[in-house]
Design goal:
Layout lengths: L11 E7 L3 H12 L4 E4 L29 H6 L26 E2 L27 H10 L9 H15 L1 E2 L13 E2 L6 H13 L6 E2 L10 H5 L23 H11 L3 E4 L2 E9 L4 E9 L5 E11 L3 H10 L18 E4 L1 E2 L2 E7 L15 E3 L21 E11 L8 H7 L3 E13 L7 E9 L5 E6 L4 H20 L3 E7 L11 E3 L16 E2 L2 E6 L14 H20 L4
Parallel strand pairs: 1-2, 1-10, 2-7, 3-18, 4-5, 10-22
Antiparallel strand pairs: 6-14, 8-9, 9-10, 11-20, 12-16, 13-16, 13-19, 14-15, 15-16, 17-18, 21-22
Helix pairs in contact: 1-7, 1-11, 4-11
Length: about 575
């Protein structure tokens, strides 16, 4: 293999971070702040805050197809087009199906964003802390393996991250969903408040709250220092926010890291593998392929943070082979790539509500109402419906009024007049179910298919289980009951049978644990058998919880980065 570059010394850094998304940006910020010369490698193109958001202020009529993708695009991208956020205004932030193929042994929709900032430009921005129940769940009911950390280990790092990110939320006082460092919350509308009261009256264990989201409702000095401003409630977030109103690596952590003078950002850099030194017993660097020229260069560092996003992090470690690790870096136990899990989004309900005709709302709120999990929370229930399955689900719902009063006229003056008056209320409810990690749900490398950079394609073998089916059934039953008790009509439950992956919350494969025989990472996200490599994105997760996972990825990353710096100072790394 030809090794190009100006020499090892000029290609040597204190730290290398692989990936520039939500967790990679946090690794870069923390490491640079602590004085480490840090190289961030991104396989996609550069995207600069504000400058590279070409559609951020476009009107619908500014797009050739009124912001809808043409049929030819949909036909060429049957996977990517399933994502709710992909349209003419955002398609440049999504990986097209042909750009990085993979092998679906079981149907799996892999949604990706290859650019500086990764999916932090197009995420849904919902953030909820895990509770003590989530970190204790595996030990409690025997699923997967015990987490090597508990809520109290991560709580200060949740606070550390939240203050910098800017989280809108309400202090709800719920043990199942701990409070954080919140800015002013968004508000429920009148129908959502009605459902909130109805739920409180009917159930002791169910609580409706306004969603917690990474939006600046009341920017603090730390946010102004980042150059960010208040959220304008435009609901055009997926195009990139020129105000920095929501958190992304591009508007927040990467510029903050750059201000230290310690950051080197290299886009168009596919990491082929991590280089392992047999004699020193540690990783010494990474092998990088330039996406444009296909030239190969090696970069070196004392510590390496793997933040390529869950499945790509698994792919990278599986492809990092050596005499010491013939089956992938750190893979002594053969578990690398196994126990991949996700969130179950299949169940939803629609309903109508008669009343509150004199009530309305304004603006485009970037969150919804949420109900934290109420199934098998502190123990496995032994009686009742929840005794039939493990874990549970979070519920999200919203109420809105349609545009226009019902009319038989579909054009002309009557139709236009109807559009000036709000229509009836409708309610939409969805589940976010926890899936229990299973050995058989895994990814591996293809033995006969490679991508254009010569790297084996990823094989996805991830599917639903009987437990997932039972969870869906319970949600649809309980959701229908909640809506009925709240006075809704025309309740229509639905299972859309979507493939795993479309939740875009894939987790696991490089799980944390206490025992090297049953896990890949320790309690500080270090590979057990190669302790200068840290994995802090979704791949490290030992279970999934029912909460949106991104804030937990960020907190784990900040914690691991500070630990790594301290260990370097002690000359242990």
């Amino acid at each position: 293999m030809n090794i190009n570059g100006p020499g090892k010394a000029q290609n040597t850094y204190d730290a290398i971070v692989i990936g520039s998304g939500i967790s990679g940006g946090w690794a870069a910020k923390e490491l640079c702040e602590q004085g480490l010369r840090t190289l961030v490698l991104e396989r996609g193109r550069d995207v600069r805050h504000i400058t590279d958001y070409p559609t951020a202020t476009n009107n619908p009529w500014d797009f050739p197809h009124r912001n809808r993708m043409p049929m030819a695009f949909d036909e060429a991208n049957p996977i990517a087009t399933k994502c709710y956020a992909l349209d003419e205004g955002t398609e440049h932030f999504f990986v097209k199906d042909a750009e990085h193929p993979y092998v679906q042994e079981k149907p799996f929709d892999w949604i990706r964003g290859y650019q500086v900032g990764g999916k932090s430009l197009i995420w849904a921005r919902q953030v909820q802390r895990w509770s003590r129940f989530d970190f204790e769940a595996n030990a409690r009911d025997g699923a997967a393996i015990d987490w090597p950390i508990r809520y109290q280990d991560l709580a200060p790092w949740y606070s550390h991250v939240e203050k910098f990110v800017g989280i809108s939320g309400n202090k709800d006082g719920l043990e199942t969903l701990p409070d954080g460092e919140f800015l002013k919350p968004w508000e429920l509308n009148c129908v959502e408040k009605h459902i909130q009261k109805s739920v409180a009256a009917a159930y002791k264990d169910r609580h409706v709250i306004i969603g917690r989201c990474a939006h600046l409702t009341e920017p603090q000095p730390i946010h102004y220092e980042q150059g960010r401003a208040q959220c304008q409630a435009r609901h055009l977030c997926y195009r990139g926010c020129p105000y920095g109103g929501y958190f992304s690596s591009n508007s927040s952590t990467l510029p903050w890291a750059a201000k230290t003078g310690k950051l080197t950002l290299r886009p168009f850099s596919v990491v082929h593998s991590i280089i392992y030194d047999e004699q020193r017993g540690k990783a010494t660097g990474v092998r990088v392929i330039d996406t444009n020229t296909k030239e190969t260069t090696d970069y070196f560092a004392r510590i390496i943070f793997v933040n390529a996003a869950c499945l790509n992090s698994n792919l990278l470690l599986l492809n990092s082979t050596s005499r010491r690790f013939p089956n992938g870096l750190g893979n002594d136990n053969g578990l690398l790539g196994h126990y991949v899990a996700f969130h179950n989004y299949r169940g939803s309900l629609n309903a109508s509500y008669e009343g509150f005709e004199d009530g309305y709302y304004y603006g485009r709120r970037p969150t919804t109402a949420f109900m934290p999990n109420f199934r098998n929370v502190d123990k496995q229930e032994m009686t009742g419906p929840a005794s039939r399955f493990q874990r549970g689900y979070m519920v999200a719902f919203s109420a809105a009024r349609s545009m226009g009063q019902p009319t038989t006229e579909s054009f002309g003056a009557g139709f236009k007049e109807s559009l000036t008056k709000p229509g009836p209320w409708h309610v939409y409810m969805m589940m976010q179910g926890e899936t229990v990690p299973r050995y058989e749900n895994h990814v591996r490398l293809s033995t006969n298919k490679r991508d254009e950079w010569g790297i084996p394609q990823l094989v996805t073998s991830i599917g639903y289980t009987d437990n997932d089916e039972k969870l869906i059934k319970d949600f649809l039953q309980q959701g229908s009951e909640i809506l009925e008790k709240s006075g809704c009509q025309n309740i229509r439950p639905s299972d859309d049978h979507r493939n795993p992956g479309l939740d875009i919350h894939e987790m696991g494969g490089v799980r944390m644990g206490r025992d090297p025989k049953t896990s890949l990472l320790n309690g500080h996200n270090q590979l057990h058998s190669c302790n200068n490599v840290f994995v802090t994105d979704g791949a490290c997760m030992t279970s999934t919880g029912s909460q949106n996972p991104s804030i937990t990825f960020m907190a784990l990353t900040a914690r691991a980065a500070r630990f790594a710096v301290d260990e370097m100072k002690r000359k242990k790394l």
